[in-house]
Every structure is written in C-alpha cells, then in structure tokens.
Specification:
Number of helices: 7
Strand content: under 5%
Distance between the termini: 70 Å
InterPro entries: WH-like_DNA-bd_sf (IPR036388)
Shape: elongated
Structural class: mainly alpha
Pfam families: HTH_23 (PF13384)
Radius of gyration: 25 Å
Number of strands: 2
Number of domains: 2
Largest sheet: 2 strands, antiparallel
Length: 172
C-alpha cells in the first residue's frame, strides 16, 4: 500500500464515499472533527461547522452524500481513529523517526507502534520509488525502508561470579 496516498477503501463506511467524491483529506477532517451521531440538515445554514472545516463547495458535496445515506436526517459518522493512528505512525516512520519518538509524539503505546511498523514494513519494499527511498541506508537510527537497524556497540558486563558462592560454614 502507498502510505503517502492511501486508497479511499482504507477508510470505513461513509468516509470512503466522501474520500471518493471530495478528497481523502476531507474525509479525514470529517472523521476527526465531525464524527458521531449527527443531524444532517436538508438546507444547511451559512454558519454550518462543515463550511468552516472544509469550505463551502466541498462541504455541500459532503452534506449531500451524508443526506443520501441518512435516515430521517440522522447519521452516525465513524471517527476512523484506528486509520488515523495508522497514517500518523506510517508518516512519522517513513520520515525516519524512531519507534520511541513516534510513540512519544503520538501518545500511542510503544508496543502498538511496533505492531503498526511491522505491518508497514511488510507493505514497503526496499527502494520503493514513490516513497522516495534512498539508494543506501544512511539513517543512523535505522533504515525505515528495509528495516535494518544500526545498533550501538555496548559493553558486556557479567554479574555472575566465577564459582559457587561460599556458605557460612565453608569459609577458609
């Protein structure tokens, strides 16, 4: 999957129709700012929140899509939180941020970020042209395209004693 331009089918329900008709970004804005159970007016007022969010023309298209899918003017719009999280992690990872930095910046648990990054690595092939992958792995933290990690050398310290521990009666 191209993480820079995901397909509209990546989004759930009515958001997919909005992404096809207007744009993927407009569908994400609707999901982030206008999700939940909503009333879709037959004739929206000039101060409707979608006009401020998207602009008049795209908002009218979105409202017509929502009106066509609503029952008696009421509609439940998904928030697409999972998809928005995945996109945020993918964009940060493909910019070269480490897993710890992504977890800190997005407020998502490190293990969750690791799972998403593993899924991203399966879909990204080394040297993928549309991602702008470098020809060589020159990122010091690790290569986001091939997954190669550059570990720091660490001193190994052993906490084990060379022999058995002396017992209280065995002291010399």
């Amino acid at each position: 999957m191209d993480w820079h331009n995901p397909p509209p089918s990546f989004l759930p329900g009515i958001l997919e129709a909005i992404a096809r008709a207007v744009s993927f970004e407009a569908a994400l804005k609707v999901a982030a700012h206008w999700s939940g159970r909503r009333h879709v007016p037959a004739e929206p007022p000039d101060d409707h929140p979608l006009f401020a969010l998207l602009g008049k023309r795209p908002a009218r298209v979105v409202l017509s899509i929502l009106r066509a899918d609503s029952r008696a003017g009421r509609l439940s719009i998904p928030n697409a939180a999972h998809q928005r999280r995945q996109l945020a992690i993918a964009n940060a990872y493909l910019q070269g941020l480490s897993i710890a930095a992504i977890a800190r910046d997005t407020g998502i648990d490190r293990r969750t970020v690791e799972r998403f990054v593993a899924a991203i690595r399966e879909t990204v092939t080394p040297g993928q042209a549309e991602l702008g992958a470098p020809s060589t792995c020159d990122n010091r933290r690790g290569c986001p395209w091939c997954g190669h990690r550059f570990a720091r050398p660490r001193a190994r310290v052993s906490l084990r004693r060379p022999g058995p521990l002396p017992l209280f009666g065995d002291e010399e």
